[in-house]
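Morning F.,

Quick status update on the modeling queue. The single chain you submitted on Monday has been processed. Sequence for confirmation:
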Amino acid sequence: MGSRLLVAFLWVLHWLPLPLLRGLGVLVGLLFMALGRERRRVGATNLALCFPELSPAERQRLLRRHFVMLGQSLMDRPLFWWASRARLEKLIRVRNPERLAPVEGRPLILLCPHFVGLDAAGCAVTMAMPVVSVYSRQKNPVFDAVIYTGRQRFNASVLLSRQDGMRKVIKSLHQGYPFFYLPDMDFGPRDSLFVPFFGVPAATITGLSRLARATGARIVPCVARMTAKGYDVHLQQEWENYPGDSVEADTLSMNQFIETQVRSMPEQYFWLHKRFKTRPPGEQRYYP
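C-alpha cells below.
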C-alpha cells in the first residue's frame, strides 16, 4: 500500500510547473546529502580522486551542488513517466536530431554518459524512435512497473537485462534498433579493462569497441545537460576512425571523451557510484 501511495504522490507531481518541481528538488537533494552518509562519502572520495587540484572546501561545494541537481532530476522523473508529449517537447531541447536518422543501413550506438539528465535523454530519444537498452529491474514490483511502463510509453523499445548479454543487443542492432548505451560504471572485472579515468585506473567495460567491431555501428554521443528551463540533449558528431587499432585504445578514447564532457559540467555527473570499486591486483581500495 505504501508503494502505491508514493506512486500516486509522484503522479500528482507531474502536474506541477517546473520551477516548483526544481524547488522541491533542492530540498530533496539537501535532505539526501544530510541523511545519505555512505553516498556522501562515496561522492567525496570520487571528487578527491578526480579533482585533486581543488581544495577540500571547493570539492565540498561541488558535492553539494551535485546533490541538489540530483534531487532536482529525481523530482523531474514523473514528467518523463506521465507528462504529455507536447509538454516534454517544450522541456527537452534536442540538438542535431537528424543524427538519429539511418545512414546507409549502419547500426547506431548512442553513447550516453551518466549525467543527471540521462532520463531526459532517454525520453527524448524514445519519443523519436524505439531503441534497445539495458534495464535494471527494480526490487519493488510497483516501482519496477512504473519505470518499465514509463520507458515504453512512446515507442515499444527493447529493454534487456544485464544477464541477457550482448548477443541480444547485436540482434536488435541488426534489426534497426539504436542502442542507448551507458558504459561508464564499474561492473566488475568481467569484460573490463583498467584504463585511466581522470588519471585513476578504472575498470571499464569494453562493450562499445567490441560492438562497433562486431556490427560496424556508428557511434553518436548523446549528452544531456540540465538547464533552468529543462534539458538540453546534444547529439554530437559521429566519431570518426572508431573503432581504432585496438580494444584497449578504443576504451581509453571513450573514457577520455567522457572525462572531457564531465569537466564541462562536473556538478551534473553521477558521483555517487563507486566508479573505482574494482582495483588492479594489489592496489588499495578506495571505499570502506
